[in-house]
Amino acid sequence: MSITFNRWPDEFAARYRAKGYWLDVPLTDIIDRRKDSDALAVVCGDRRLSYRDIDRLTDRLAAALARRGLAAGDTALVQLGNVAEFYLVLFALLKIGVAPVNALFSHQRSELNAYAEQIKPALLIADRHHALFTDDAFIGELRQLHPSLRVVAMRNDAAPESGLAHLFDEAPGYFIATPTPADEVAFFQLSGGSTGTPKLIPRTHNDYYYSIRVSVEVCRFDRDTRYLCALPAAHNYPLSSPGALGVFYGGGSVVLANDPSANVCFPLIAQHKITVTGLVPPAVTLWLQAMEQWGDRGQLASLRLLQVGGAKLGETLAARIPAELGCRLQQVFGMAEGLVNYTRLDDDDEHMFTTQGRPMSPDDEVWVADGQGNPLPPGQVGRLMTRGPYTFRGYYQSPEHNAEAFDADGFYCSGDLVELTPDGYLKVQGREKDQINRGGEKIAAEEVENLLLRHPHVVNVALVSMADEMIGEKSCAYIVTSQDIKPVVLRRHLRQLGVAEFKLPDRFERVDELPLTPVGKVDKKRLRQLIDASTTTPAAGE
Ligand code: AMP
Ligand code: DBH
Questions:
Q1: What does CATH list as the number for 439-533?
Q2: CATH for the stretch 208-431
């Protein structure tokens, strides 16, 4: 049985095929085409896997899962960090047509339950090293809430016979890959979201594979590429822009890092002669600080390209990258929903430092809308509207939200406020969606508000962004409460509900009432002004 999702209209699908964008080839082709290669594909700590190893190990895992009854049309909830198994599990599942949601390692009970609720997984793969899975309590809860769950395999399991590792050890037997057809859902990508529940994005083999191939072309990844994956491996950016999948397509090597700190990354760059990596802006700031304090440029000598995306990169910071890190900068403005913009490797400084790139595909249709949905000329700021060969046509099982997020012609409104330059580059100027971008980590305001409202003393709440020098934006919760309540209590309340740590408000402001707009909605613009004024006003006497 195939997964129901919003498909591209036939005439678009026909065009994307005719142009050679959609090849009707599954994503498993990325490793299949190199299955006889002994070239180094993945480095994870002391572990090194060749392309041949990846193919063999994913065959084994796929066969073991198939023997346990998993088959095309099933879905899986996967939560793994930056470890080799992340890619092994992904390809093994693709080989048997099981579509995963790859949750971030920072996700907790609330997020995992929300994903499971939507996809009704038959399989759970997670890590005993995650706080949620040190014992079996949460697995029991998942099984109870989601009766679809039949098979559980844990990384680092103490009982070897029930663990994920064991599945790689079973005799492979006879195995032929059976991916889903290329125009069906390959896996679900996560949206940063702006609504109460985290949204899922169905990605097909055809559209995702195309986005990877174009990315590889634009970023010139090849066999000499040594890519450091320092952001969460499951995130769309380090997975596909061109990310690890782009590296595999090009035949290079991926080196996994636990986090993007200079402490962790600089030695790995030196040791593995890393040529390219992708960061979010706050990590760039940390790298520049580290370089000033104890950095030895020699450590970064092999680094040719630094991609920066996920949140807006300021011009000053941008210009410091080539000057102080000694490598080229590429700005990346992408979204798990599809559209990816890159500055090009041969762009001049002006484009490189002041724009967020231009769409990677000639068939990305991008325009800027005013408040009434009319197109605006270059130079004017408005809503980004887009559709194209790898931009989705609807969130999974979300008809109401989709009715708002798309216009009648199938253009997706990302909620970003942008300006187009006369030569087709984008400058991100703000955001209209109810989201906080905490240094690349997206927080849907409504999701956190709903969780706070579950506290008996919270009467009303609005979560807004506040400017932060270091990470761009942090979150501030304006709360109306029935009695005095300390921030620490509210943070504990959120942790008890099991929400990712990065979603906890950085600051709480107690108010008697929330300001309203003339139509009676909470006036978040006013709240943002209030918080920015209070954080930037010098104290009396200064
Ligand atoms: P998501 O929906 O979680 O995949 O997040 C995508 C969103 O991240 C975009 O819609 C933008 O709001 C933001 N974003 C990604 N890259 C950039 C960038 N280079 N500059 C500014 N915002 C970005
Ligand atoms: O922020 C993102 O989601 C993002 C950033 C850069 C992304 O999905 C991408 C590139 O593909």
A1: 3.30.300.30
A2: 3.40.50.12780
User: What percentage of the chain reaches a pLDDT higher than 90?
Assistant: 92
**What does the pLDDT look like over 247-301, one tens digit per residue?**
999 999 999 999 999 999 999 999 999 999 999 999 999 999 999 998 788 899 9
Q: What's residue 536's pLDDT?
A: 66
pLDDT of residue 489 exceeding 50, the answer is yes
Residue with tokens 């304090």: 293
**Residue 432: what pLDDT?**
94
pLDDT score recorded for residue 178: 96
Contacts of 162 (CB under 8 A, 6+ apart): 152, 153, 154
Phi, psi (degrees; rounded to nearest 5) at 65: -70, -40
Whole-angstrom distance, CA of residue 243 vs CA of residue 412: 24
Q: Does domain 51-179 have CATH number 3.40.50.10490?
A: no
Ligand lying closest to the C-alpha of residue 195: 1
Query: Closest Cα to atom 15, ligand 1: which residue?
Result: 310
Per-residue pLDDT of 202-259, as tens digits, reads 999 999 999 999 999 999 999 999 999 999 999 999 999 999 999 999 999 999 999 9
Separation of alpha carbons 288 and 267, rounded Å: 15
Ligand 2 binding residues, C-beta < 6 A: 236-237, 240-241, 309-310, 332, 334-336, 340
How far is the centre of ligand 2, averaged over its atoms, from the C-alpha of 360 (Å)? 13
The whole-angstrom separation of Cα 317 and Cα 309 is: 13
Using the CB atoms, write b or e for 416-447: b if 16+ within 10 Å.
Answer: bbbbbeeeebbbbeebebbbbbbbbbbbbbbb
Domain boundaries, given as residue ranges, for the chain: 51-179, 208-431, 439-533
Q: Rounded to 10 degrees, what is the CA torsion of 438, 442, 445, 448?
A: -90
Strand 458-468 with 472-481, pairing = antiparallel
- From the list 535, 398, 371, 412, the residue with the least C-alpha distance to 464 is 535
Q: Do domains 51-179 and 208-431 have the same CATH topology?
A: yes
pTM over 0.85: yes
Which of 218, 235, 313 for a ligand 2 pocket mutation test, highest count of atoms within 8 Å of Cβ?
A: 235
Question: What's the CA-to-centroid distance between 341 and ligand 2, angstroms?
Answer: 9
- Tens of pLDDT, residues 387-397: 999 999 999 99
C-alpha to C-alpha distance for 125 and 341, rounded to whole angstroms: 32
Atom 6 of ligand 2, nearest CA residue:
334
Ligand 1, atom 9, lies closest to the CA of 335
Question: Closest Cα partner for 173 from 306, 52, 65?
Answer: 65
The answer to whether residue 540 scores a pLDDT higher than 70 is: no
Q: What is the DSSP letter of 160?
A: G
At residue 352, φ and ψ (nearest 5 deg) are: -65, -40
Ligand 1 centroid to Cα of residue 319, in Å, is 20
